């Protein structure tokens, strides 16, 4: 595929992320009664229903549900292993944030859900996630399963050229902070650094411990 086409596709994904962020700002927003407001990175975090039950296939080939995957605080990202730059960069950031948190005694799992049903196998996912972090969990599934989890997380993807073995895929690039008890807590855009993400996640974990005592 020509370089210009790749650049255009990646640019489209970034533009989409900005539009999604703007949309969420108008529909969600911080509330004055939000007990976790101090932990939130963006004004778009908050109250809408994001996430929910899913059944997918892990990088080991096992069938798993959200209860097994999100057993503790988790950073959930949608991408694909053939992604030329955006997914590796974002996944490296998520892994770095998890390492910073681990150094402070917080156990947080980075989760990578593939939107590339045609090419991403459990084996290719395992190779990708192992490069990012031994903590990272890779997930794939059938077309129906991936579409269902995309809807649940209000995410987006579009295969640019179905049937082309080198196709790029436009997709949303937010990373979602999920908790097994509370569900969705916040999301982080691409420009959030590992340090800022780690501070925010640690704040949520501490606040939830305090509020549930």
Automatic annotation (TrEMBL):
Domain of life (superkingdom): Bacteria
Family matches, as InterPro entries: SCO1/SenC, Thioredoxin-like_sf
Gene3D superfamilies referenced in this protein's UniProt entry, alphabetically: Glutaredoxin (3.40.30.10)
Pfam families membership: SCO1-SenC
Family named by the database record: Belongs to the SCO1/2 family.
Protein name stated in the entry: SCO family protein
């Amino acid at each position: 595929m020509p370089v210009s086409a790749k650049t255009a596709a990646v640019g489209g994904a970034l533009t989409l992320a900005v539009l999604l962020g703007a949309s969420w700002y108008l529909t969600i927003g911080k509330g004055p009664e939000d007990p976790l407001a101090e932990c939130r990175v963006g004004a778009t975090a908050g109250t809408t229903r994001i996430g929910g039950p899913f059944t997918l296939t892990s990088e080991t080939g096992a069938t798993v549900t959200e209860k097994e995957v999100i057993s503790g605080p988790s950073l959930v990202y949608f991408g694909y292993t053939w992604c030329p730059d955006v997914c590796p960069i974002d996944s490296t950031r998520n892994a770095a944030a998890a390492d910073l948190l681990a150094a402070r005694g917080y156990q947080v799992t980075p989760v990578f859900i593939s939107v590339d049903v045609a090419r991403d196998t459990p084996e290719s996912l395992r190779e990708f996630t192992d490069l990012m972090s031994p903590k990272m969990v890779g997930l794939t599934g059938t077309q129906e399963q991936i579409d269902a989890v995309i809807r649940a997380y209000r995410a987006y993807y579009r295969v640019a050229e179905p049937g082309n073995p080198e196709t790029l895929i436009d997709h949303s690039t937010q990373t979602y902070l999920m908790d097994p008890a509370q569900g969705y807590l916040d999301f982080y855009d691409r420009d959030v650094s590992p340090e800022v993400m780690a501070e925010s996640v640690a704040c949520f974990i501490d606040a939830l411990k305090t509020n549930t005592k």
